[in-house]
Protein 1
Amino acid sequence: MSVENTKTLAIIGQGYVGLPLAMAAVDAGWTVIGIDNFKAKVSQINSGSSPVEDVSTEQLQAALSSGAYKATVDFSEVAQAAVITICVPTPLNEKREPDLELLRNATNGIAPFISNETLVVSESTSYPGTLRDVIIPIINEFKPQESKNLFFACAPERVNPGDSFWNQKNTPRLVGAIDATSKSKAQEFYESICDVVVLVSTPEVAEAAKLLENTFRLVNIALVNEFTQLCFENGINVHDVIEAAGTKPYGFMPFRPGVGVGGHCIPVDPLYLTWWARQSGGSAAFVESADSINQSMPRYVADRALSMIDANENNPKVLILGVAYKPGVGDVRETPVSELRNALISYGADVAWHDPLVSNWEGTNSVGLDWDCDVAILATNQPGINVTQLTERGIQVLDCTNSVKNLAGVTLL
Ligand SMILES: NC(=O)c1ccc[n+]([C@@H]2O[C@H](COP(=O)([O-])OP(=O)(O)OC[C@H]3O[C@@H](n4cnc5c(N)ncnc54)[C@H](O)[C@@H]3O)[C@@H](O)[C@H]2O)c1
């Protein structure tokens, strides 16, 4: 059965990855069943309200009303699908090691209902071997007896939430499959929704490539975060240095310092790599070191901000601007601003925060820019934050985002 014959796709997980994929597939002519085990989210989606910034409510409503898309909690609906993609979270556990429980649950959920000749693709980020050693054995154990021929591939998602240029269609898609038929089915499927499909030799190459991509970002951010501290100690403006180095036309890529790394990917995926290295008796010491430098940044930023105000102030009032892990989204997962807030509180500061895209976070509400404070920290450059409202009142601002240029009262990290 060609995947083009039925053109029914089931996507497990309707979050930042699964819902945009659903919309891209609807645009490409697929009938999409979006499966999620979070009932409230399924109801929200089916009511036409999009839970993610990259899918507009208009786009979602059009897909729902055309009949080409619906969300459901019913895993048995995968029986209708020619292709199933798994897009569930792959977080860290409390030991900061891979936690595949949600991936295993999702796989267990679909396994008894998969029809013969179905292509199952993992898009979730994980360590090399996850498709072959975790997903396939679960499916083989629980699949219906008549489902003799199943096909498997790995196609790690590269979506960058909030990015108005790169999307599901124009971002090249890596595909690694377990055999030739799986490869051609996966190629056919992804070519129906993506401009460029890059076939790699095995699923493990695709899985490892995804970890390399995100680890590359982690270590370069750590490098510039460490470099920033060295420059500051020596009275050199690190941003001037980055701009100077950036004039080299080859072999250099500028990264900027910040409060740390956040979100579902950059702080998490490299730890899948370090764990994977340890499983074979090796180590990824360089990555571990980068992780610890980034982990130290929130306290460094707290120290820098508090050094900007009167040392005799016992309970300084600090306003944090932007708490989401990056601009343009309301996503606070793994945001380094959480540790920044903890560090400030540990120093006895009275801390409030303002974020136009986040109303409630860690049990507290966003305050207005008129909140009375001694110093402010621009942690995430959210659209809608106007720091002049603070500087005009004589409040010093530490800009950790390199986005406020030449404004009196603003100091760059
Ligand atoms: N968000 C990103 O920027 C991004 C980018 C590339 C890759 N990824 C990877 O994609 C995967 C998904 O990430 P996300 O950001 O979309 O997560 P998300 O939290 O936004 O969405 C995941 C959805 O899966 C649902 N879910 C959890 N367990 C489930 C289960 N057992 N059965 C059915 N549904 C279940 C959740 O309710 C949620 O709606 C992760 O592996 C992540 O690392 C994420």
Protein 2
Amino acid sequence: MHDYEMIVIGSGPSGRRAAVQAAKLGKSVLVVEKGRRVGGVSVHTGTIPSKTLRETVLNLSGWRERGFYGRSYRVKQDIGASDLLARLHKTLDHEVDVLEHQFSRNGVKTARGAARFVSPYDIEITSETGEHTTVSGGNFLIAVGTRPFRPDYVPFDGLNVFDSDEIVELPRLPRSLAVIGAGVIGVEYATIFSALDVQVTLIEPRSSFLDFIDKELIEEFTHELRDRNVALRLGSKVAAIEFGNDGRPICRLGDGRTVITEMLLFAAGRVGATDTLNLGAAGLDVDHRGRLQVDPKTLQTSVSHIYAAGDVIGFPSLASTSMEQGRVAACHAFGLEPPPPPEFFPYGIYSVPEMSTVGMSEEEVRKRAIPYECGIARFRETSRGHIMGLNTGMMKMIFSVKTRRLLGVHIVGEGATELIHIGQAVLNLKGTIDYFIENTFNYPTLAEAYKIAGLDAWNRMSRA
Ligand SMILES: Cc1cc2nc3c(=O)[nH]c(=O)nc-3n(C[C@H](O)[C@H](O)[C@H](O)COP(=O)(O)OP(=O)(O)OC[C@H]3O[C@@H](n4cnc5c(N)ncnc54)[C@H](O)[C@@H]3O)c2cc1C
């Protein structure tokens, strides 16, 4: 007999979903969370804060209206850090409330403290005041997520040099910002700050960025960033970071160039938060980035009653996919077969402009030697785009010439992360180009772009 049938370590998206699923199956569940409040990286430093910040910036800056009123248009002059934080705290409080209510409604118990294994079936929970409690579980889910990678050569000081968790509680708005790392997080923050007219320099050691996204989309995106004066330093390794006499971070690049800005955000990678879990006592081991390996179908680690889900198991490291992983783990632990995961899931990048993608990129289709054709629509071709004053935004769809099936959808521009779900549905239901040709879409909408891109591809395919 164990104290709980399922113990979940971490209350982020995967832990939360697993806990509720197990409780709904009538199991006794304990969630252990070392943070002050439940919600994980997703609620407190990652997804929700960055998206709230983005929304606040777009609203206060009048970004969405600038197509009509010009680049100097502002809803609020002199936007400060306090303007950004006010909305953030309200949103986070609401998220935590909803989550706490969900746990109590489903009878999920929570314990505040840091968990570490003392045996494969027991963990010790250490509270903030140093008290220890030991509890045993029949099953475990390790859902501890990640924390920012903080290499020694970066002089983090919480004043001018931040990691991607700290930037959320920015003390003031800088005039200039260097962002190191052009991954999803770096690109999101770089473009959000640029929308506030902060002079941003984005530094990336590789010569390209966001390589998992269709190249044509990235070209479009890059063009827009350059047009907005975002300085891109691609192919530039950081040799050293030091402070000038005025306290400004000076970033010396391997190619001899120097970037001096008021603030610096280091957003080059995250590592699994597993170092304090004493995984050896449970018979588990991690890779060089602190991540656990699992069976992708069941989410079991090499110790069969211990599951792992969310960012701690690596790719794709999204809140959306983490939730599904948590549910799958809980179902498997209690003998319930979850439905097979869909073949394709969407990827949303909440940069300004936002991007979203589902299915294969043109590069992938080519690599697989599938005969294909593309259809392109520009948002400015849609009546909705005219009404909204959109000068930019593009949708690209890729179809198989042989089977007419949709292979991929790639969108950059307003509403991309919502619009993508039409493409996702058609893709996972194995739909063809005919869906877009034959069906009527609401008018005027941005979704009409699907029709335009579909017809564009259809014309090319007919000609071929
Ligand atoms: C800036 C940023 C923006 C993002 N934007 C998006 C987005 O737009 N869309 C999207 O889908 N995803 C986004 N993500 C990714 C998303 O936040 C993660 O995929 C998701 O949070 C992972 O969930 P998780 O279940 O692994 O747990 P996490 O959210 O990582 O939470 C883990 C929890 O475990 C706790 N914990 C750790 N160790 C212990 C311990 N020993 N004992 C007890 N508790 C412990 C931590 O305190 C934490 O609360 C973003 C991430 C970041 C950093």
